Amino acid sequence: VFLNQYLLDLLLLRGKLMEHNNSIDVSKKKAKVYLFGSIHYKLNTNPNYTMDHIIELINAIAPDIIAIEIVKEHMGLKKEKLYQLYPPEFPEVMSIFESTKIILPFNWIPQEQKENRQTFLNERKKVTSELHLMKRKRGETQFLDLLNKSLDTITSYGTVDDVNSLTWDQLVYLKRQFELSIIEGTKFKEKFLYYSGYLNPVRISAINNNIKSIIDENKDKKIVILTGAMHRWHIVPFIKKNIPHIDFQSVSTKNLIDNS
Fold first, then answer.
1. What is the predicted pLDDT for the residue at 5?
2. 171-195 pLDDT, tens per residue?
């Protein structure tokens, strides 16, 4: 009886040790996620934030995976075509890192934009102009112009850290809230949100969920998310709220590198 109890105790102890080891293994499988927003075509004109800065950051972090703002259907296109369809940083990152890193897409765009990009973007400009006419009627020009000027100054002259900052996120949030307040209750609302690059609710949901899928499927990996800076306002809080059990960095490139 004593021997049987001794063996039983050993088995129970072994089970507890296995549970402990498994819990350690699970804790080790913690994704490290680094998000930084890009300034798209202003990478070519802003001396303080260029394509070289993005490449240096990625090299410093040394991720396993780079998630970029390209739609899945376009991943197989030739680089020349991707440069026509997207801001330069996304095809450039693909070209430089595809032989050494896993490149994954997370973008979503309306079918209309996929089929005729330029027509869609021209319509977006027209819709933006209509918004400006609406705000003039309501005497709200100064405030929105100040927000747009502040954001434009940061993208034109700011550093990587200026763009990836709480100040930037707050300015974009204010712009978003103000634009929504202008169109609320109008027939123009649905059209504006559809053509908006950063306020389309369907696009926002799809991008957020695509990023979540990438992180959930790569729990033990180091992941860089490269996106347009105007999307930080919804991606950062979404990750913090819905994917809490990861190491996540989104502000200050010094922290990104120091904690990599």
1. 53
2. 999 999 989 988 888 889 999 999 9
Whether the CB-CB separation of 74 and 82 falls below 8 Å is answered with yes
Cβ atoms within 10 Å of 86's Cβ, excluding its own: 21
Are the C-beta atoms of residues 86 and 69 closer than 8 Å to each other?
Answer: yes
pTM as predicted: 0.84
How many other CB atoms are there within 10 angstroms of residue 162's CB atom?
A: 18
- The DSSP annotation for 169-218 comes to HHHHHHHHHHHHHHHTTSTHHHHHHHH-TTT-HHHHHHHHHHHHHHHHT-
Nearest residue to 89 (alpha-carbon basis) of 227, 230, 231: 227
Percent of the chain surpassing pLDDT 70: 84
Rg (CA), the chain: 23
Beta strand extents in the chain (DSSP E only): 32-38, 65-68, 102-105, 222-228, 247-249
Q: Are 33 and 248 in contact (CB under 8 A)?
A: yes
DSSP SS3 for 63: coil
CA distance 176 to 170: 10
CA distances for 123 relative to 25, 130, 135, 144, 210, angstroms? 52, 11, 19, 21, 26
CA-to-CA distance for 111 and 93, rounded, in angstroms? 25
Distance CA 149, CA 134 (A): 19
Phi-psi region of 85 (alpha: psi -120 to 50; beta: other; left: phi over 0): alpha
Cβ-in-10-Å burial (0-12, 13-18, 19+) of 150 comes to middle
90 close to 46: Cβ distance less than 8 angstroms: no
C-alpha neighbours within 13 Å on the C-beta side of residue 254: 4
